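pinned: reference chain
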Amino acid sequence: MHRSPVQGRPLHPLHAILLAFPLPLFLGALLADVAYWRTYHVQWTNFASWLIAGALFFGGFALLWALISLIRSRPPRRRHAALYFMALLATWVVGIFSALVHGKDAFAVMPEALYLSAAVVLLALVASWLGYAGARAERVA
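pinned: its structure tokens
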């Protein structure tokens, strides 16, 4: 079996598990924001806040792992590792701003919370895509 120099290794299983959390948790926060926008039941902003906190918690560990992987990566794989790290960092930073907005009074969060939640979901999707891009099945020939 020949492995191309750009493909590299797939994610470590623990790293893959940590990376699996931010996207669905941020997506849940976006859905809670949409529910709040439609109903104005305050509990939806509480749900969104907790989902964002969970996404930031697991995303922080995935970000730390991505930084270590970037430092340890060899030149052919370094560009991909840097893109993945930057996407995950952007996700985490926008997630922090989203958490700060969600920390305001429930009636003061709209429409910023909705916009930030949508942005962080897109960033989390990109980061997940880049993170799992190296986890390809190898050809059997």
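why pinned: DSSP finds five helices and no strands in the chain. The mean pLDDT is 88.
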